[in-house]
Amino acid sequence: MFTATRAAAAAAAAPWGARVPCGRRLRSTVPLSSNTDDRSGGPPSRSPSTASGISVDFTETRGAYKSKDSLELLRSLVVLKLCSFDVLVEKNQEIMDLGKTILGQKAFDQILKMTFYGQFVAGEDQTAIKPLIEKNRAFGVGSVLDYSVEEDIGSSEHQQKETNSCASAAGKHSLGEGHRGKESEELFVSGQGGWNAARTYSHPDEAKCDQHMETFIKCIKASGGSSIEGFSAIKMTALGRPQLLLQYSEVLMKWQRFFTFLASQQGKDGMEAAEQRLELTQLQDFLTKVGAKGDFHGWFTGKQESTGFIDILDWRSLIDDRENASDLLVVPNVELGELEPLFKKFTTDEEEEMKRITQRLDVLAKHAVENGVRLMVDAEQTYFQPAISKLTVDLQRLQNREEPVIFNTYQCYLKDAFDSVTADVQLSKREGWHFAAKLVRGAYMDQERERAAEIGYEDPINPDYEATSRMYHRCLDYLLDEIAQSRRARVMVASHNEDTVKHTLRRMNSLGLLPRENAVYFGQLLGMCDQISFPLGQAGFAVYKYVPYGPVSEVMPYLSRRAQENRGFMKGAQKERDLLWKELKRRLTSGELLHRPLY
């Protein structure tokens, strides 16, 4: 009667522990008064802009680069040009290994500090990064701090295990055929170190996750100590074993696909996910026929003022109350030809691991509030993302009651990006908390598409860059409209695309969204698109650089990944290089070649 997933589901057990929001409020996001001499991290205040609109010139180089001396401009020009060569990007690891062999580690590190590391990384520790943060702050640009030491998981063995696992998480276009091999139980290592040596862990990677949590705490404190209205970035796969997040993602995706299947049975296929409604009587009749024992109709009519219909948010709510709703959480098993518990194969130890992930998130949220910092949860590969988004939204439901502290990230290269954004906005409105998001195009497009083709599941990525841009603007327009209507949502437009930034400015002007409201933020990576970031900041918009830091030798996997992710942009960054040349020539002819930033 229907197609069922073969991937291992997770066993029903007690919920992952009650959680309470932090007691202290995050300090206000309203800018400081314009006469306050503050150079410490977030965008400075400006005089109020008018509703008639603000125009920003992204071609005027004197203002865009006044925070840089001429040697910094020259370095940017050289590094961005080198990054435009495919061979250097594709073979960067081999080139670095050769450089270390010929020059030695110390000399090689020094060259990196003068070039690629110096361009894209702020420094080695919290002390070293402060001068750059303060300088950017003085010129209108804030910071999203990211301690960027990460495991190198690029070995062929680990890649194969990861590939074998991703098929079942991504699933088929139907209700979800897939297979997760036994070898995927040993997915890659997530870090190193330990939080409390006296603790007993069900899995050795647990100690490493606690070490990562401590590192994130240091990053939060560094952001709070050096910035006003700053952000700190965290990665969920550093706080929980990746294989566990993959397993949880499988559960969430199976539950989502089951809802989509049930909607199709009621003739609702082809509709936007947020518009799909299941008629309860039909739902109960159908599920009873296929073997369900639970009283779906009674559950939903008894929990709320019933309209006789449920939507995807109601459906997902069963997972939040799974201790009491365990008889309702069932999905098809194609091999057995019957329904089986959704949470069938989660062991007691894995339940404890999930509890610890939420505990780590609660600890980080507490430190963020205490230090006046907002947490930015990074997006990752699609087969981890359902779990990452769910854990992030659960944290937002607790911590974003009074003001936006936790920001989720939405990857607009995904075909279902708009559905994800709209569902979470509707949930925030239904439950009364502040929605907060970072919109990105996405970092793993080629990688995801190749895996989908190789393993045989539906490609989750939009067909091309243009389709991704349309998705980005669709999600962005929806959020800008929501901000204009409710003033309770926040969005960071994390984009290096000048057209997207201009589109955002036009929409803000038309909706009457003022820069001083700090409801719309802009974000770019350190070392890229200064011609966009600094004019925006100087015009009074809230703009941030994503500021990585960490030891030279340990941060190289980050630089290698960023080079791969932004290869297409780097090749097309001719306009940025032209503007750098223009400013260098202007300084040479005007006698300003020895320009030093004053702040």
Automatic annotation (TrEMBL):
Pathway: Amino-acid degradation; L-proline degradation into L-glutamate; L-glutamate from L-proline: step 1/2. Residues 28-54, 153-182 are annotated as: Disordered. One of its GO terms (biological process) is L-proline catabolic process to L-glutamate. InterPro entries: FAD-linked_oxidoreductase-like (IPR029041), Proline_DH_dom (IPR002872), Proline_oxidase (IPR015659). Its EC number is 1.5.5.2. One of its GO terms (cellular component) is mitochondrial matrix. This is Proline dehydrogenase. It comes from Oryzias javanicus.
